[in-house]
Specification:
Shape: globular
Largest sheet: 8 strands, mixed
CATH class of the largest domain: Alpha Beta
Oligomer: single chain
Number of domains: 2
Strand content: 15-25%
Number of helices: 15
CATH topology of the largest domain: Rossmann fold
Radius of gyration: 21 Å
Bound molecules: zinc ion
């Protein structure tokens, strides 16, 4: 057999029916044909495509959720490969945006799912469009401001979200169903002061932990999307894979009338006016500069303007510019930039303005 014929033979079942692809899941009675059909007509948003996001999105796409939105602002780096299962050395070498790399990999696993990569920061200005139409939001972020924002959005629109966190050997997950369960702010009224909470940068993180937490989150989402509300956990789960502990904390009584979000309907994190901002990215010498509104940059024009410097390089998703001072700036079409090689927001902002003007 020649090579082309071998390929044809390999792909002779190019589009198997969903009853074949999802046979083992459909056979599980609480899912069944009806649950599978319901999954196929659902849309899920995965916020953050780091380690948790990779696990969550893999399960959702392989299970046959009809539409999956992958939101991430960052690029793949070498230190991600230890635990972020969808990325390869090639992605790290090229600095591919995580949302794009993950979408490419997941489409290979299941081409019948519509995967929408969003190379973007989840902010008050972008949340309404990035999360629009989602039947559930699953949290793969690594920061508190994103979680309070997701909580506001979910409660405002009456859709559930599944919180998850993993640091060192300990993880936590909780599902928020607006109108039924406490929301995130009922339990944690305000974000912790900067520098108090452990992060993956200060305390590290173990790869098997992330798999467990992300899988639990995906399971909650699949239960919801297949109409199995009664099977959902309804509590806060804390686990530690090093100390071998697993603790369910009932959160049933934690709903608060005076919660600003679900009790009083004030969505401060979602309605915060957005200003141009810069933020040091967790775990690295990188500062993100975000314009007050998306810019719609013509990157090829910007590249030709910077060409004479000989330090600009146009890629499929971004423009990479090496400054004289040794910093690297990655600029996205929405005007957002990652300034690598510094943790100084003022320095990063200065270089950003040098390139794009004020
Ligand atoms: Zn609440």
């Amino acid at each position: 057999m020649d090579e082309a014929a071998a390929d044809r033979s390999l792909f002779r079942d190019e589009s198997p029916s969903s009853s074949i692809r999802y046979a083992r899941q459909i056979r599980f009675a609480p899912v069944g044909e009806a649950g599978q059909t319901s999954l196929a007509s659902s849309r899920a948003a995965v916020a953050g495509m780091g380690a948790l996001g990779c696990v969550i999105a893999s399960h959702l796409v392989r299970s046959g959720v009809g539409e999956v939105v992958l939101i991430d602002r960052d690029i793949v780096e070498w230190s991600n490969l230890q635990r972020q299962m969808l990325y390869s050395e090639r992605d790290a070498a090229l600095g591919t945006p995580k949302a794009a790399a993950a979408a490419a990999r997941l489409r290979e696993a299941n081409s019948s799912v519509r995967v929408f990569p969003a190379i973007a920061d989840l902010t008050p200005g972008s949340a309404e469009s990035l999360l629009a139409g989602a039947d559930i939001i699953v949290d793969g972020t690594d920061n508190f401001s994103a979680r309070y924002l997701i909580n506001d959005y979910a409660v405002k629109h009456g859709i559930p979200w599944v919180y998850g966190g993993a640091v060192a050997s300990g993880g936590m997950t909780m599902t928020v169903i607006p109108g039924e369960t406490p929301c995130y702010r009922c339990l944690y009224p305000a974000p912790p002061a900067g520098g108090i909470a452990d992060t993956c940068e200060t305390a590290g993180v173990l790869s098997p932990l992330v798999d467990i937490v992300g899988s639990l989150q995906a399971m909650e989402a699949i239960k919801w999307l297949t109409g199995n509300r009664q099977a959902m956990s309804g509590s806060l789960l804390q686990l530690d894979v090093w100390r071998n502990s697993w603790m369910q904390v009932s959160a049933g009584n934690a709903r608060r009338e005076d919660c600003p979000c679900c009790g009083q309907g004030r969505f401060a994190f979602l309605e915060e006016p957005q200003q141009e901002s810069s933020a040091v990215m967790c775990g690295r010498s990188t500062v993100q500069v975000t314009p007050s509104r998306p810019l719609g940059l013509d990157l090829s024009r910007l590249a030709s303007r910077l060409e004479s410097s000989g330090r600009a390089e146009l890629g499929p998703y971004s423009l990479r510019y090496r400054s004289e001072s040794g910093l690297t700036v990655i600029i996205f079409p929405d005007g957002r930039a990652l300034v690598q090689g510094t943790q100084d927001p003022i320095k990063a902002k200065g270089l950003y303005t040098d390139i794009l003007g004020d």
